């Protein structure tokens, strides 16, 4: 045990921690969860972290929003320690059943949601008449690869966003193709749940497809996929953009002018993986500002301080370890207080968790949640 | 304590589209993913938990072709010590009885205190192999075990009956137990875990290594002959409601009211 513990403090570079508490202070789940990242840092240094490690159910509460790491004044990476602890638990195998299912699904089907490979492109039949989507795996070529992502491929609500996005991209004249059934999970959530080996296998397989089809430019609508493709896949092999970046650029360059009005009051919710983790704050707002009739409000907790929706870090597959108000419900209540009609976001995880929160708080008549592309699709034609 | 676990590699069919193959005696497995039989994952987890508590070895055995190596390696990665695969062209078409004969011959060669199998397989769901194995080895058995406790030379088991009832038995070891789902929570096996056992040897035995004649195994050695596999005929009396969820919900409510399901 001693040898492993020493490696933890060294491996995760914990010695610089002076216990200021900025990490726990910024952690969005710390108020309701036993998870105390500051304490875990000192336990790591004191070689106590593997004591009762199996009982630390709160380790699965972390959404990997990265606020702790962003705030650390000594440049340390507390989030990586949590992921490291999860890796130890994953190797032992005694992890929550639903997390096991998500990982096994990702291994067997290339999709943590469990949709078989052969059904990954079922969403194509939802596309409007006359639109044909290019498929690299079927021999087409295009300027960009649109990396669809597992959630958009599997979830019926997010498939609607796919449809809107395709309409927007067509109207903007973006030349893109998909990987079709060859596309596998990007691995972002898998890595954050602690299964590094599986992440590497998924990444290798995707990289092989990129190479086979000579893909150099990729964009995706999912900030989780965007995050890992940008920061964790090898550098220099391809360029990666988020859809809001492409769309914002088209608007800036005057490639499209939006005439149709959309007279609603909106608030934009910054997804953690797009905003605070990758500094994309302005592009979504630029797009929304360009739509005539839109009144755009701001949350008090906006941009870097955006309140995590609790969807990331494997939380889509595991329930919180303790009771306490869901962050998404707090967000919905804040939006209602702001007096907006619609919460707009640019992430499938945020979309699903916020929409669920609208339902669980009984506010379906008062407010709705839309993806940015759904709004744009309504005015772009 | 030396434990033997019998496992099977089966196709995953819950989310897949199923088609009958050309022979009409099987489903088309070409597009399917395969994995360790769900009941067997509870069995192997139970064996490994026992080993962790009481010491000893766990040997995992499977009758199957090279593809079954993947399944056996998963069991090794979970904590099994040895893996044996039984393969021979003559084994093709074996029913539960023939399969049990093959397993029995392989098992006779190894010392054991306890044999654990899954209660049934996900594909053919016969539930016969474990029980037949016990008879062939002339040892006691219990099927559908959802709790077990080793007490020296005896195992105390709970068997799942209908209606939430349980039967409690004490059985002399060695014995065969067939395991029901829910007895434990099977641990996860990581990619790194599987890589660690990638080089471990899997012993392969054919018919000539076992004390079996051609008429003992395969179709010749089976008591059940599979005639045909077919999809159930589509019946009448089912209406699919289409449209937006709000429309469907209202129509559904109308139907419930019409048919007296709701006042």
The percent range for strand residues of chain A is 5-15%
The CATH homology group name of chain B = HUPs
What is the CATH architecture assignment of the largest domain in chain A?
Answer: 3-Layer(aba) Sandwich
Shape of chain B: globular
Please identify the oligomeric state.
heterodimer
Descriptive overview:
The complex is a heterodimer of chains A (about 375) and B (about 260). In chain A, the strands form two sheets. Chain A has a five-stranded parallel beta sheet with strand order 1-3-2-4-5. By secondary structure, chain A is α/β, with parallel strands linked by helices. Chain A starts with a helix and ends with a helix. Chain A contains 16 helices and nine strands. The longest helix of chain B is centred in the N-terminal third of the chain and has 17 residues, at about 40-55. Chain B contains six helices and eleven strands. Chain B is globular and about 65 Å long. Chain B has a nine-stranded mixed beta sheet, sandwiched between helices. Chain B has a two-stranded antiparallel ribbon with strand order 2-3. The model of chain B has no long low-confidence stretch (mean pLDDT about 95). Chain B is α/β, with parallel strands linked by helices. The interface between A and B is medium-sized, with 26 and 19 residues.
Task: Please name the defining characteristics of this protein.
heterodimer; A: 381 residues; alpha/beta; Fumarate Reductase Iron-sulfur Protein, Chain B, domain 2; Rossmann fold; 3 domains; 4-stranded parallel β-sheet; 16 helices; 9 strands; 42% helix; 8% strand; globular; B: 263 residues; 9-stranded mixed β-sheet; two-stranded antiparallel ribbon; 11 strands; 25% strand
